[in-house]
Amino acid sequence: MPNMLGDIVAHLIAEFPDVEIVGRSAGDEANDDALAAASLHMADLLIVRDQQGCVGQILSNRGLSILSISEDGREADIVRLDGERLTLDEASLGRIAARVRGGRH
Q1: Phi and psi dihedrals of 65, rounded to 5?
Q2: Which is nearest to 25 in space by CA: 10, 42, 44?
């Protein structure tokens, strides 16, 4: 994501008192590293700019459920991707925050 856009998004998101930005990826091709860092920090939200790669493919299938089966076949995880297209502006920040907070365990 271009530096200026990343700075704007980080500034808007950081206005929520319970949000901590733990890092930023080095560029558009660092999404795997960003995902690993988000997992390491147990992040509630990962922001990427990827409309063509893996994330773009996933987002194009809104409503898709993914079942990931363990190597031994005894356990599985399922997640349903219910995406929402937003206009990225100050008015949408409350919806973003509510969605992230609603997903916390």
Answers
A1: -105, 140
A2: 10
Tell me the C-alpha to C-alpha distance, in Å, between residue 27 and each of 30, 47, 99: 5, 12, 25
pLDDT for 51: 62
| Number of folded domains that form the chain | 2
pLDDT reported for residue 105? 42
Upper half-sphere CA count for residue 11 (Cβ side, 13 Å): 8
Residue 93 within any structural domain of the chain: no
What number is the average pLDDT over the span 15-29?
67
pTM: 0.58
Find the angle CA(96)-CA(102)-CA(105) to the nearest 5 degrees. 130
Residue 57 domain-assigned?
Answer: yes
